[in-house]
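Contributing new complexes? Match this layout with pyridoxal-5'-phosphate.
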Amino acid sequence: MSHSKPGFATRAIHAGQSPDPVTGAVNVPIYASSTYVQEEIGHHKGYEYSRVSNPTRTALEQNLAALEGGASGHVFGSGMAAITALCTMMKTGDHVVCSDNMYGGTTRLFNQVLVNYGLEFTYVDTSVAENVKRALRPQTKLVHIETPTNPMMGLTDIRAVADICHAHKVDLSVDNTFMSPYFQQPIALGADIVMHSTTKFLNGHSDGLGGVLIGTRPEHAETFAFVQKCTGGILSPFECWLLLRGVKTLPVRMHQHDENGRAVATWLSQQKKVQKVFYPGLADHPQHALACKQMTGFGSMISFDLGSQDAANRLLKSVTLCALAESLGGVETLISHPATMTHAAIGVEGRRKLGITDGLVRISVGIEDVQDILADLEQALAKV
Ligand SMILES: *Cc1c(COP(=O)(O)O)cnc(C)c1O
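Output block (do not edit by hand):
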């Protein structure tokens, strides 16, 4: 058999990692060292100081770049630190076009911190690619999108937006946190940069925060490495090791997340007390065809509307297996109330514009036995 690029699961386990040359340890050690001895002035083994680079981090960065099909990876202490680093590519007066329904923390960073440094942001409904084109200005340097969006699960056509960006010499960055590289490969669809909160599916076990920027061109690698060195918001060796460990099972976890997600979404859509279900895998999702085209699975993020905050509260108070908590992407099922939790900060008007009602519940379906998840939702829904 001829052999080209190793498959995704093989890369998840092996990319960036080879047995330790000194001991043969199959796992990359946690290099808990801030500094590295030098033989003589200017002679070292490629590592000088761990803010700049660390072997555990290098392994992780190469691994994540291989999974996204990028040229470089740089990890940061959280998803927000990664987005902050991304924005250091810009200068005062530069303009960014982004999705109007982004992760709340990203909008807060843009509107409450980065505007103070003279960056300008325009928010558009990127599910209509033409809106991106209309919002471009001569000063536009970056288009930043999230697909699917949180929590409304709206999609953006990555290929269509990438074509618009490239016709205008603007970089496209995609926050790929919800799908993970297993189900969505933005670079193959034309994106220039991929960003993740590794805190979610990439880690998968809700035991560490992190963020990554995957670049496609040499200047991305240079800029992101320089930001790591200058601003210092890097991921620690221990957290890098946890993430390397988590990523090894990304394919099997995502497979199960997807299977459970489809089952829960289908079940929810059959319940009388559930007014609407938002999940790209359902045939009635307005962008189901696009989901089938640009994703290889639908994942396990689902939102559904119970009609009122009272109904949502009754459900959330009654679940026992599903944990009422922010965050997503872990092996355990997490359930949350966007209006009072993740999207409280954008206010009533902001939520109204995005369609986030007081009765909306978001669930990150874990990989427990799906009949147990369904049984928990069923008994909780009975109390609504
Ligand atoms: C969680 C999240 C972030 C922020 O990441 P942190 O690791 O919490 O800093 C950014 N984008 C998306 C889509 C997220 O879900």
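Reviewers usually confirm one structural detail per submission. For this one: Residues 269 and 277 are 6 Å apart (CA to CA).
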